[in-house]
Amino acid sequence: MDQTLRQLRELLLGSVPTVVLLALLYALYKAIVHKPLQRVLAERRRKTEGAVEKSRADIAAAEARTSEYEQRLREARAAIFRAQETRRQAALQARSSAVNQARAQAQAQVQTAKKDIEDDRATAEAGLERESAALAQEIIRRVLQPAGARR
């Protein structure tokens, strides 16, 4: 057993430089690679999260602008429809006014024509009355004229 302990002690003493080298290697790894790598990864994560947050903010802003644009578009369409309706109403009123004016002119022309026809009728009746009186006088004169005096 003595020999086993001695071999174990030699083995442990021989492994001390390896343990020291391993500890030194671990310390150097931590100092040279691990900590800078962790810093880079943390910064990368921070920048990535910042970019994601910025993207989310940009998306929210874009959605807000889109919503505002759509609202303005709806308002513009409503204004256009109101203007079209106003123009349509004005056109209908102008048309109605023109129709009423044309109707009034036609009515005035009809009245004038009726008056002219009535005047012509009255004139014709008066002429006929004069002619009938003259004819009646002529007939009476001829009927009452002596028989030999006729020409």
Please, could you describe this protein's structure?
The chain is rod-shaped, with a radius of gyration of 62 Å. It is built from 1 helix and no strands. The protein has 151 residues and is mainly alpha-helical. The termini are far apart. The model has no long low-confidence stretch (mean pLDDT 90). The protein has one domain (2-146). It has one helix at residues 2-144. 95% of the residues lie in helices and 0% in strands.
Topology:
Layout: H1 2-144
User: What is the string of helix and strand elements?
Assistant: H
The profile of the biggest β sheet is: none
Give the tally of β-strands.
0
Shape, please?
Answer: rod-shaped
Helical proportion, percent range: over 70%
Total of helices: 1
**What's the structural domain tally?**
1
Strand content is under 5%
Average pLDDT score: 90
Compute the gyration radius: what is it?
62 Å
Return the structural class: mainly alpha
Q: Kindly, what is the distance between the CA atoms of the first and last residues, rounded to a whole number of angstroms?
A: 198 Å
Low-confidence stretches: none
Notable characteristics:
mainly alpha, rod-shaped, 151 residues
Overview in brief:
The protein has 151 residues and is mostly helical.
